[in-house]
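Private note to self, pasted from the team thread so I don't lose it. Backbone tokens:
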């Protein structure tokens, strides 16, 4: 793999790690805010509720990201196919136009002789 591609891949992985870390931290903050609304919980209960809340939130985020990734893959395939068909049509039209121009040039040359 080329160094530029390795660097780009590393940056994408770092960005993903940082985004995921921010998501987990957001889940922790939400869990704390939630348990603050339940002042009757003991410390152990509060920790359990926060742990369960975080697990649920992170699981939901992971499922959402998986659905988004799958949809992005579907769209990439769809648009790659559309681009290939469009490119083939453009090449065919261009070839037809060049052929028509060549025929017209030949016909004019024959007529003007």
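Design output:
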């Amino acid at each position: 793999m080329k160094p530029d591609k390795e660097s780009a891949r590393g940056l994408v992985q770092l960005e993903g790690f940082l985004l995921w870390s921010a998501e987990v931290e957001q889940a922790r903050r939400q869990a704390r805010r939630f348990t603050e609304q339940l002042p009757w919980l003991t410390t152990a209960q509060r920790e359990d509720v926060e742990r369960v809340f975080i697990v649920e939130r992170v699981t939901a985020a992971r499922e959402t990201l998986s659905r988004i990734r799958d949809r992005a893959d579907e769209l990439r395939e769809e648009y790659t196919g559309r681009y290939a068909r469009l490119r083939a049509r453009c090449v065919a039209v261009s070839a037809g136009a060049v052929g028509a121009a060549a025929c017209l040039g030949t016909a004019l040359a024959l007529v003007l002789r």
